[in-house]
Write a structure and sequence with these properties.
Blueprint lengths: L3 H11 L5 E5 L12 E2 L9 E2 L3 E4 L13 E9 L14 E4 L11 E4 L10 E4 L9 E2 L10 E3 L7 H9 L4 E5 L3 E6 L4 E2 L10 E2 L2 H12 L2 E4 L7 H11 L4 E5 L10 H7 L3 E5 L3 E2 L5 E5 L2 E6 L3 H19 L9 E6 L3 E2 L5 E11 L2 E6 L9 H5 L2 E5 L5 E2 L4 E6 L7
Parallel strand pairs: 5-6, 12-15, 12-16, 13-14, 16-20, 18-23, 21-24
Antiparallel strand pairs: 1-11, 2-10, 3-9, 4-6, 4-7, 5-8, 17-19, 19-20, 21-27, 22-26, 23-24, 23-25, 25-27
Helix pairs in contact: 1-6, 3-6, 4-5
Length: about 400
């Protein structure tokens, strides 16, 4: 039985980054950059004013004070989109608007509120401004040749805005992995249908679809395959059209746990079965060509935990992202934690910040069937294989859940 680190290593070794495609910038949000973005221009491309005011030569205002103001004639105006067409001459000023090109020859902009009112085509100045005052210089934001965004970044609205400022109408992004989700089990029923005795609703598939989407991949929900070998094989055969297959249930040692046999019949190479963790021990991982196949435990919490620990990093790598794992931090335990086996435990917890440190407690029952424990949690408390007990006040490592809310 593999430990968690070795299992993840084998999965990531088999996870290959997908090809790239070009999409319009307006449809790039949440996608992953497939190439470095290097600027082919300076931003801003011209010196522009950060204030409504007057463009001047500082040398013309040396010695100006409130008691001895200097008056300069106005040579013209520069406004956004309609710059002044000539250079600023000596002993004169040009009215300039926010965002407008600063005329050649000017080396400062004096805000309107620091001048006297215009009169007879001239304006009064009561001080000399600092060099480059209120001027956004060429390349001040981004310089030509600068690496703006590295490959693997997820495009946010801010990223898209910068790409637009570079004149990019599209983005080169990694194709999202297509992920087929195959639930098994005669006891599982689609939400909205009437339950018979001994049946439960299929919550794991819905949770998986959400987690797949959160990763930036595309889920495809297949119908419930039941427990017969014929139906399960038919469902998985159809699922193998996609890049990744997630089969839930049927991977343990019971009489109807047939998923491993079905995968082998379909030509899937089983890389390992069972990982030394809790919850989620009966995890199957296999490959067929470049396709990844996971047999996830049927219990809802086990499904979620194994996805976060093993499937999510694989999808992140296929997308070309840099941060494959959930973010980690150290927190102080607010309650004792104990285990009696040599497994790595992932305990659903609630971490909060208090007086400059992080503190964490459990969500209560850690049964792998209590789906609400993940709903309440914003983190997973990690107890390594060799750890038997954590006392109140001791530090533990936690992994933050995606979009986990601070309590």
């Amino acid at each position: 039985m593999l430990n968690a680190g070795e299992a993840l290593r084998q999965i990531l070794d088999a996870s290959l980054r997908l090809n790239a495609e070009v999409v319009p910038l307006g449809r790039s949000f949440g996608r992953t950059l497939a190439s470095d973005v290097v600027s082919d221009r300076d931003i801003p491309p011209f010196a522009n004013s950060s204030m409504d005011g007057y463009a001047v030569r500082r040398s013309d205002l040396e010695g100006a004070t409130a008691g001895k103001p200097i008056r300069l004639p106005l040579q013209g105006e520069s406004r956004a989109g309609k710059p002044f067409s000539r250079s600023l001459g000596p002993q004169s000023a040009i009215r300039v608007m926010t965002g407008a090109k600063v005329p050649d020859g000017a080396d400062a902009v004096v805000p309107v509120e620091h001048t006297g009112p215009e009169s007879d085509g001239s304006v009064t100045f009561q001080s000399c401004p600092p060099a480059s005052a209120n001027i956004r210089l060429v390349g001040e934001d981004i310089k030509k040749g600068e690496l703006v965004m590295p490959r693997g970044k997820v495009i946010t609205p801010s990223h898209a805005a910068v790409l637009a400022s570079l004149g990019r109408a599209s983005a080169r992004v990694t194709k999202p992995p297509r992920v087929a989700i195959v639930p098994t089990g005669d006891e599982v029923v689609a939400p909205g249908r009437k339950l018979r005795e001994g049946q439960i609703y299929n919550s794991s598939s819905i949770a998986l679809a959400g987690m797949v989407t959160e990763c930036g991949a595309q889920p495809r929900l297949l119908g419930i395959a039941g427990d017969t070998k014929t139906r399960v094989k038919e469902a998985i055969r159809g699922a193998l059209k996609d890049d990744v297959v997630l089969v839930t249930g049927g991977v343990s040692v019971g009489r109807y746990d047939i998923v491993r046999d079905v995968l082998a019949d379909l030509g899937v190479k089983i890389r390992f079965w069972q990982v030394n963790i809790k919850p989620g021990k009966p995890l199957v991982f296999g490959t067929k060509g470049k396709k990844l196949v996971f047999g996830l435990p049927g219990n809802p919490v086990s499904t979620g935990v194994t996805f976060l620990q093993f499937v999510r990093p694989a999808l992140q790598k296929m997308l070309g992202r840099k941060d494959l794992r959930l973010s980690r931090l150290t927190a102080v335990a607010d309650e004792p934690l104990r285990k009696t086996d040599g497994k790595r435990h992932f305990i659903r917890g609630i971490v909060r910040q208090e007086e400059g440190s992080f503190r964490v407690r459990t969500t209560g029952s850690q049964s792998s069937g209590v789906m609400s424990s993940l709903l309440k949690a914003n983190c997973l408390i990690i107890l390594p294989e060799e750890k038997v007990e954590v006392k109140v006040g001791e530090e533990v490592e936690v992994e933050m859940l995606p979009a986990g809310e601070w309590r």
